[in-house]
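Narrative of accomplishments. A recurring question from our advisory board has been how the design workflow behaves on a single, concrete structure rather than in aggregate. To address it, we present the structure tokens for one chain from the evaluation set, followed by the sequence designed for it. No filtering or post-editing was applied between the two.
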């Protein structure tokens, strides 16, 4: 997916100029799609910096997903232990896991949305660090 942001002040003011500008965006879009469908493997061209950022973001997202999976596995093991050792503790663990799930679902719209928000915050931090340098 490709998205490009334009400042409202940079857009042409007259209808004719705006129509020509918009037509040029469609020509650029068609050129991008033609490059995508003619490339093997199919991919949009990216700069080396974009490729590194995408790889780093993917690694960070994989690490977070693995961490989340590990937390759920540990909660499952605790749940199984509690089932046999202490039913009241099992109830407490189950209630706390349910409370975490409800909180994340209501506050962030689910775990996927939370992961995306964390990734966006990391990208903003990366962008801010580049500006500082």
């Amino acid at each position: 997916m490709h998205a490009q942001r334009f400042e409202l002040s940079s857009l042409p003011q007259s209808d004719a100029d705006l129509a020509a500008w918009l037509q040029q965006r469609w020509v650029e879009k068609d050129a991008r799609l033609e490059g995508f469908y003619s490339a093997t493997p199919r991919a949009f061209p990216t700069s080396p910096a974009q490729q590194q950022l995408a790889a780093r973001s993917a690694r960070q997202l994989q690490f977070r997903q693995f961490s989340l999976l590990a937390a759920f596995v540990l909660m499952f093991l605790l749940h199984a232990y509690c089932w046999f050792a202490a039913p009241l503790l099992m109830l407490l663990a189950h209630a706390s896991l349910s409370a975490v799930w409800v909180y994340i679902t209501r506050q962030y719209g689910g775990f996927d949305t939370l992961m995306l928000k964390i990734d966006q915050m990391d990208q903003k931090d990366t962008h801010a660090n580049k500006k500082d340098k």
